[in-house]
Design brief:
The structure is a single chain. The chain is mainly alpha-helical and 169 residues long. The chain contains six helices and no strands. It is elongated, with a radius of gyration of 16 Å.
Length: 169
């Protein structure tokens, strides 16, 4: 009898790292110091997705989010708001899908057929993220004239806090 490999599932791990890269790119395009923090977040996230550590995946997500907040607080430019929204949504996707990869690996093993479950989870996460980004950007455009960028950053922090609270068991 062979032992079950309890490492994270590959598809979700790859998607999580891809989303983290999108978040880092958005942070770099907003402010380079935020990109540095986001890069550190990827460095923390990647080992967690290899060995199956929820703690490292969580730390990676928090550092990615800190990079987005720092980029928003120090950056600016023509499309900074949109970069912040996309980067924050990508951060949540990286964290959520990474946690799902670890959970599926723990429960079913890395070699189990989990593609359908992973795609369903990813689809739901992307829909929630797209709706959140759309609503936030729409509100910003309607009510944001003359509003400072930190107000948008605080909205994003609130969205992250809500997401974290909803994930608590």
């Amino acid at each position: 009898m062979t032992e079950i490999d309890r490492r994270p599932t590959r598809l979700s791990a790859i998607v999580s790292l891809g989303a983290a890269a999108v978040a880092a790119l958005a942070a770099i395009l907003t402010a380079s110091i935020g990109g540095v923090f986001a890069g550190v977040g990827i460095v923390a996230l990647a080992p967690g997705l290899v060995v199956g550590s929820r703690r490292l995946v969580h730390v990676g997500g928090v550092v990615l989010a800190a990079g987005m907040v720092l980029a928003g607080a120090t950056g600016g430019g023509g499309a900074a708001e949109l970069f912040m929204l996309v980067g924050t949504a990508a951060t949540v996707v990286a964290w959520d899908v990474g946690q799902n990869a670890v959970g599926l690996g723990e429960q079913l093993g890395q070699e189990a057929e989990t593609t359908r479950a992973e795609l369903a989870h990813l689809g739901a996460t992307l829909v929630v993220g797209a709706v959140t980004v759309g609503v936030a950007y729409g509100l910003y455009q309607v009510a944001g004239s003359g509003q400072p960028l930190p107000a948008l950053v605080m909205l994003l922090v609130a969205a992250l806090a809500l997401t974290t609270a909803l994930r608590q068991k």
